[in-house]
Amino acid sequence: MKKSLVFLALCLAAFAAPAFATPGEVPEGGTLREMPMQGLGAGSRLLGDFRGKPLIINVWASYCPPCLAEMGSLERLSKRYGKQFNVIGISIDDYPERAQAFLTQAKTSFPHFIDRQLALENMLGANRIPLTVLVDADGKVLHKVFGAKEWDSPETVEAIRKAFGLRM
Fold first, then answer.
1. 115 partner at 20 to 30 Å CA-CA among 7, 34, 46, 91?
2. Residue 133, beta-bridge partner list
3. Domains of the chain: residue spans and CATH
4. Which parts of the chain sit beneath pLDDT 50?
5. Nearest 5°: phi and psi at 52?
6. pTM for this structure?
7. Residue 118 CA to chain centroid, in angstroms?
8. Is 10 helix (H, G, I), strand (E, B) or coil?
9. How far is CA 129 from the centre of its chain?
10. Distance between CA atoms of 55 and 50, rounded to whole angstroms?
11. Distance (Å, rounded) from C-alpha 51 to C-alpha 136?
C-alpha cells in the first residue's frame, strides 16, 4: 500500500512539474538539426530526409499507455493525409525489442525510429511523453503538443491544416 501511494505521488508530481528545456532543445520557431535515426523495422534514415514536406513527429515509449492510445489516430491521420505531410514515430525505449513489441500491438504503417542515445529526445524537448511535434517543410518547429490526442478528429485535422497552410 505504501509503495503504491509513493508511486502515485511521484506520478502526480511529475505531471504537475513545470516543463524545463532539455539539453540542446530546439524551441518552437527553431530549426531542427540534422540527426541520424536508427530504424525500427525499416532502414535507418537522416532526419533531413523528411525535409521538403511538412512532418509530424510523435515521440513515444513502450511503457507509456497514452502513447499506445493515440497511435490508432496517428495511423488514420497518416493514411488519410500522407500525401500532404509525413508522420514518423520516435521511440525513447532503451530496448529495441520492447519498442518492436509496442509497434506490433499498435499496428502502424508509418516509419518508426529508436533514440537510445537521447539525441532526438533532447533536441525535440521530450521531457514528458507522448510528445508530438509539427515541423514545416524546411525543418522549422511550428508547434509541440504534450499528451495524447485524437489526431484524426475534425478539430485536430483543422489545426494541422492551419499550421501547415494546407488544403485538406
1. 7
2. 57, 144
3. 29-164 (3.40.30.10)
4. 1-18
5. 100, -10
6. 0.86
7. 13
8. helix
9. 8
10. 7
11. 8
Q: DSSP string spanning 101-155? A: HHHHHHT--S-EEE-TTSHHHHHHT-SSSSEEEEE-TTSBEEEEEES---TTSHH
Q: Are 86 and 164 in contact (CB under 8 A)?
A: no
Instruction: Output phi, psi for 8, to 5 deg.
Output: -60, -45
DSSP letter assigned to residue 94: S
Question: Which H or E run includes 90?
Answer: strand 86-91
Model confidence pLDDT, tens digit, residues 85-121:
999 999 999 999 999 999 999 999 999 999 988 999 9
Rounded Cα–Cα distance for residues 112 and 131 (Å): 14
Residues 85, 164: contact at Cβ < 8 Å? Answer: yes
Which positions ≥6 away from 95 have C-beta within 8 Å? none
Amino acid at position 40, single letter = L
HSE at residue 160, side-chain half, CA atoms within 13 A, is 28
